[in-house]
Amino acid sequence: MLNVKELKSKFDKMNDFDIAEEIEIMKKEERILSYEILEDRMPDIFSLLSIKIRKEIIKSYDEKKLKFLVNNIETDDLTDVLQELPESCVSELLKYATEEKRKIIQNLLKYPKNSAGSIMSADFIATSINSSTEEILEKVKDSSGGHEHNSIIYTFDDNKILNGYIFLSDVIKCSGKNLKSKIKTPTIYVHTMDDQEEAARLFNKYKLLCLPVLDENKRMVGIITSDDILDVISEEVEEDFSLMAGISQSEEDVPYLKMKLFPMIKERIGRLIFLMISATFTGLIIERYQKILESQVLLAAFIPVLMDSGGNAGSQVSTIITRSLSLKEISAKDIFKVVAKEAKIGIIIGFVMAIVNFIRLLIGSAVDIKINLTVCITLIITILISKIIGGMLPLIADFFHKDPAVMAGPLLTTIVDTFTLIVYFNIARILVGI
Would you give the distance in Å from CA 125 to the centre of its chain? Predict the structure, then answer.
């Protein structure tokens, strides 16, 4: 076990993010010692820690340390922390906050989860369009926000309506000369009740450092900073991958090796049972056309190729459409345009794949020409259907205000597999003459 001097020396050489990771893997005795050593840095580290560690810190700190911690954490980080902690811990922390900070936090907590208001910070600098350099710099000195909150100063007109912004670097360079010429317009913004994904889209589109948040009266009430939006993007990506893979989001909240066995089983088994039952349709189709398979056993050898090709083709387009929906490039009303475009793509890709497959079977396998044609025609139709279904499902989900990523995973594959088998056996019945 490290002593106080060794731990302090170690932490002095580390940044806050690495310290947070280090604390997570420490033994309890070392963690408790670390909390004392890191008291001055804890406001910057606290929000980076797991819920378990945060609760441990709250229990180990006395009133004086908790008061320092709460009143020195940036408001947006503290809001995020409070949303994740149990109610008893929230009450414990808030009673040590100053009255002003408590009001700000309570105001931020009223916004729905995943809204722009829930991730914004009240630490921003706003000033009159007629303010002097000295007045602006004085506000910067008095600001409680970090460097990411103070890099941009927002300007208001006489009616207190946001009308532009100016970079702090420009304020310093101007030294009072022609300050108005440096004000940028128009200002990109979101409203408090807008989805956080909309904020992420605007950050990505306009390459923003900060994004103003306005209330229903178009008054500025906060800003979203780039570090907060990176968290949002990361969460959305993880959520989409979870939905596509049929994994519960809660599994991603805990490091893999620390997950308990039975909760993992509970989270996964429901989706797998659902998909197993839905896959019964493919079994019923194969059973229905059993006589065809008995008379032409070779047909069974090509089922995996056709089903995999259809699943892969559908997944390609569903991923693209899901991404386009998230970027607001398309919406549910564009479904017919998407279907028309994907139908053209499906026909061309299907024909190319069928030609390649026809030559492959002709040269490399002693397959009857009728079976070869059956496989190739099925391949064309399968790719066409897969592209259309893969394009439609995310748009249908979006129309019903569901996450399009739900349609981009196993459910899509099950639907495509069912259509593939129906097409395959019916074409075989016609061409092979069974």
Answer: 29
